[in-house]
Amino acid sequence: MGSTKERMSYVRAFACIALFMILTWGCTIGRVYIGSDIRSDPKEKIQLGLTTKSDILTIFGPPERITSQFDGDIFVYAYYRKNSSKFIIEEPYLTNLTLFSYTRIQEKRDHLVILFDKEGVVKNYGYQRGTEDLTTF
Amino acid sequence: MIANKANLERETSNGEVVQWLPKIIGVLCLSVLLTGCIVGRYYEGPKISEEKIKDIKPGITTKEEIISWFGPPQNYLSPTIFNQILRELDVTREPINYYPFANILSYQFNQGNVRAVVLILFNYVEGKVKSDHLVIFVDENDRVKYYGFYKGTDELR
């Protein structure tokens, strides 16, 4: 008889804990994507002194930004991604007390900058692939 | 008699356990099933006609034709330092026709999709912004020199 009462109290305690947990903790995952992935590997497609502006437009499409300088144009391609994760344990109704909070925000971008000479031929370029470093959580 | 009473109490207790379990499972299920769903769409700029893009021919198509097909360009860029300064100062908002030295016409249509699933214990939010982008370079005779087009909004499907 004592064991069944104990079992009942365990069940009630479990129910209270479950209810408490439901009311007090949560997890949020966010994903943001802006722009398009850089379509080709510049190392394979761009040849300094040979590739023209027309070739670049055909291979990579229109740039996000064009900057004009006295010695030629600059094309800028960018792809931005943001991953965020948040886990929080709090009592939101009575005390508004946060017991534990974990937040992780990762902002990365792929960047390709191409410099042309006055004739519209690639003079130089820089490429950085940051989105590969993004982790899930 | 005592043994029977104990058995009866045990049965009653087990019965209560059986009564409690569905409630607990119900609460847990409710926490998962009480969902909110958010869907948002954002559109900016005029759509770029893909049919007209096929008609663009370098060396033949004129700037006037481009403007009549696609309307006034959204961005304006020029190779002159003077114009670069004007852009930095945000004074190049006037229509393209006011600047006869313009050599780049740019058109952009942006689309943003937001979707979220809101549960009690778990939320997931995702936002994507993609663009259809057309850039046309014009030579000194106001004819198309070269152009580039990318339909980024296809990635939202």
Determine the N-to-C terminus distance of chain B. 73 Å
Question: Averaging pLDDT over every residue of chain B, what do you get?
Answer: 75
Q: Specify the biggest β-sheet of chain B.
A: 5 strands, antiparallel
- Strands of chain B, count: 5
Question: Which chain pair shows the most residues in contact?
Answer: A-B, 39 and 48 residues
Distance between the termini of chain A: 48 Å
Summed over residues and divided by their number, the pLDDT of chain A gives a mean of 85
Helix-strand pattern of chain B, N to C? HEHHEHEEE
Description:
The complex is a heterodimer of chains A (137) and B (157). Chain A is 26% helix and 46% strand. Chain A is built from three helices and five strands. In chain A, strands 1, 2, 3, 4 and 5 form a five-stranded antiparallel beta sheet that branches. In chain A, a hairpin with a 5-residue loop joins β3 (72-91) and β4. With 157 residues, chain B is α+β, with helices and mostly antiparallel strands. Chain B contains four helices and five strands; from the N terminus they run αβααβαβββ. In chain B, strands 1, 2, 3, 4 and 5 form a five-stranded antiparallel beta sheet that branches. Chain B is rod-shaped, with a radius of gyration of 32 Å. The A-B interface holds A 1, 4-5, 7-8, 11-12, 14-15, 18-19, 22, 25-36, 39, 53-54, 56-58, 60-63, 66-68, 70, 73 and B 6, 9-10, 13-14, 16-17, 20-21, 23-24, 27-28, 31, 58, 77-81, 83-84, 104, 106, 120-131, 133-135, 137, 145-150, 152, 155.
